[in-house]
Amino acid sequence: MTSGTQPPQADPGNPQHPEPAHAPQSNGPYGTAPQPGVPHAGSAQEPAPYDSAASGMRQGADQPAQDPAAPPGAPSMSGPAHQYAAPQPDQSAWWHPAAASDPWRDPASRAVIETRPVPLAPAPEPLPARTPRARPALGIVIAVSAVTALIAGTLGAAIGIWATRSGSGDGSFLGAEPQTERDVSSVAGVVEQIMPSVVTVLTSDGGNGSGFIVSDDGYVMTNHHVVVGGGTEPADSLQVLFSDGNVTTAEVVGSDPDSDVAVLRIEGDEHPAMVLADSDRVAVGDPVLAVGAPLGLSSTVTEGIISAIDRPVLTENNNGEVESVMAAIQTDAAINPGNSGGPLTDIAGQVIGINTAIASTAAEGEAGNIGIGFAIPINQAKRIADEIIATGSASHTVLGAELGESELGIGVTLSKIVAGSPADDAGLQDGDVLTSFNGNMVAENTELIALIRKLAPGTVVTVVYERDGEEHSAQVTLEAATD
């Protein structure tokens, strides 16, 4: 690209400072192409640091003006000690009638600046004569230098060998002794404690998921879609891989597709169980760890924060049908295929959720992490797992109303109240628009369903709704679905 403004040309009359016609192009990391209106980098004269028009400067403006009356060959007026030309005589001598004949008032005479002689400082005493000293021959100097270098090199090698053999280090005298023990509260210390409790679940279709031990007698929590694999029904048993490389068979105790929770059991009664935290106490910004086997890479740990809570998330089964709805914990910790069923922990290593799903911009097929992952809150997952262990199945919490679109633009319309349901018992009616549930603003149907399923049957919640343009509130005791 060529500039629209020609670069300034070098002065041909100034041979003392020749400049090359073109400077070599810079190929450094910050080299730039010439821009319009800017002299090319290869011009003979360096551009001024500021645009002349913008700064108000003119070429030669900082040079002193030449005296037009000075004769040719007169010395220049520039320089730190300026010379001043005498004024030309005025024949009219208008300032005094006798000026023309008075030599002391002759305007043609040059001004003279008298100078007084400056006394010179006394001359310094001469230095005493130096006694000539013999200069060693060059060969001797080189020989001495070579011998010195040889001695220094030999000494350095000896010190290094001595240090290595004596066990005082690796030849370096700098640095403290390396620390082999880590603080148990550090991320590395926490990971070291929890890693034996995390397993890789090997699915029947050759894939893998993750899981974690929740009791010393061998119960393992994971996702329903992990135990299903590529099919539609859970397998009877699966293989699990421990962090130490051992593999064992795990029995599938049961699973719940509506909540995407499953329970396995491995033999033994001395398994290291993970601590389950209270997921209702987590907050946005809390640091978290995601542990599992993404893409088959067992014992992988990633770190992030909680990005959001109660995020409504729909998951689909292998047939593309909506299977579960959850009020998920959102995190930016890297979660990828294979992480499903693994623990999301707080910074102390206590489980706050089960890694379950990721958001993706891919149109089809499996996609990787983009910093938006979702986990089932552990309080909900633990309740489901306890019911599966106790009864082989899980209950699901309901409000007892059919839902529709809100005409207000916010909230959820209760289009039909089921007789004898929790909503009916609380006095809700058909057409009421529910705008808040248990302290959470509700914008659409999926959000309300997720918030309801997060809670256990028997939980009492406060709902806010609008009826005939007026706002009301009611207490609702949630129940388990009967079907």
Automatic annotation (TrEMBL):
Positions in coiled-coil regions: none
GO molecular function terms attached to this record: serine-type endopeptidase activity
Keyword Iron-sulfur: no
Biased composition (Low complexity): 59-68
Annotated ranges, domain PDZ: 387-467
Pfam families: PDZ_2, Trypsin_2
Transmembrane segments: 137-163
Entry keyword annotation includes Repeat: no
PROSITE patterns per the UniProt record, alphabetical: PDZ
SUPFAM superfamilies, alphabetized: PDZ domain-like, Trypsin-like serine proteases
Any one GO BP annotation for this protein: proteolysis
Region Disordered: start-end pairs: 1-104
Keywords: Hydrolase, Membrane, Protease, Transmembrane, Transmembrane helix
PANTHER family hit by this protein: PEPTIDASE S12 (PTHR43343), PROTEASE DO-LIKE 8, CHLOROPLASTIC (PTHR43343:SF3)
Annotated family: Belongs to the peptidase S1C family.
The protein's name in its UniProt record: Trypsin-like peptidase domain-containing protein
Protein source organism: Glycomyces luteolus
